[in-house]
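Ticket #4471: structure export looks truncated?
Reporter: QA, pipeline team
Priority: medium

Steps to reproduce: submit the single chain below to the structure queue and open the exported record.
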Amino acid sequence: MNARLLGFFSGFPTRHFTDNIAAVLKEELIVRDSLVFISTQPDNYIQNDEDSDGMHRMFVEKNMPFANHCVIDNRTITTDAIRLIQEANCIFLMGGNATLQMKLMCDKGIIDEIRKSNAVILGVSAGSMNMGKHTVDIYESAVPYEGLGFANLTIKAHYSGADEWLQALKSVSMKLPVCLMTDESAIFIKGESVMKIGEIYRMANGDIVPITQEQLEQIRN
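Actual output as written to the record:
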């Protein structure tokens, strides 16, 4: 892994980083020249601009402003997308439609650039799902596809305990364990260290139990 830090997030309903998550980020985001977001709605330019501005404000309010921030979507030409990833201090995969985000990264030719980047790489919701070894976008299909492969896990974000998609995920978990992340939870990987914040569960063979530190250690690639 080349990334300085990997951060997998479920979601932030209040649109604020928790203090303990912000503390981890602040320790690693010493240089903050460029923050690059990757859209999950490649053609929704107005929404992308609003969301990226709003997400940057989450950094600002925790005293981590970036000199520049931008979003990669279908407006971004391929050469610019590659350059932006190469120059980024932080790459942030946004939430929304995981399948469309993966297609965007393929279309812009930035998957290999992201994989070899030494930036801080973060993902929220669909973005964190695409950072794993396999992604299951349950709203599109229960068939896993290859993710970016930063960790040996398959994430489902926004777990609350009584979710309508649990039955569909049970069939997935018979072959592929699924990491169920509640909102405001996080998994951080730095070198050999793996840390979790908040409530995170593991579904395997249809059974759901809290994830253990031993199981977390096994997600490192």
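Status: closed, not a bug. The export was complete when the record was re-opened. Leaving a note from the reviewer for reference: The radius of gyration is 16 Å.
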